[in-house]
Amino acid sequence: MGIPASPLTLSEINGMSKEEFVEVLGGIFEHSPWVAESAYASRPFGSVGELHEAMAEAARSAGREKTLSLLRAHPDLATRLQVTPLSAAEQKGAGLDQLTPEEFELLNDLNKKYTEKFQFPFILAVRGKNKDDIIQSVSERVNLSPEEEWNWALFEIGKITKFRLDDLLKG
Fold it and tell me: Annotated catalytic residue: which of 52, 74, 131, 164?
């Protein structure tokens, strides 16, 4: 089944088997279909917000190691590594595919510093942001404490996944 070409309704989501649900929603949380699998038990959902909250709660309550694996599943921003189609589209929309060599080097250096400090890649909901906003954000957040940044990264994942769900579902 995969991600459908046209938006789904909440009614269609609520009517899916567990396998269909995980196949369709498994990519909402980057490379972490276990989030959708955990949220399935909370059906039926009365709104996209309820669906998102069930998925976010599954991610938050999974335990530190499993949540760390979710954080680590995200790609570095603006790397030339293979990313999921959703991540690639999001990064392209923010202009990260048009960095100058100097901007690419700066962002690459900031990403390395960030990852060395926090042990997971910099995560930011890039929709509505440009490359300057992104460079400024990583420059600021690399100075946060590990616990502050853990919470900030989970907050950003919440924004990313809400955008993805809103794109997938209509009404």
Answer: 74
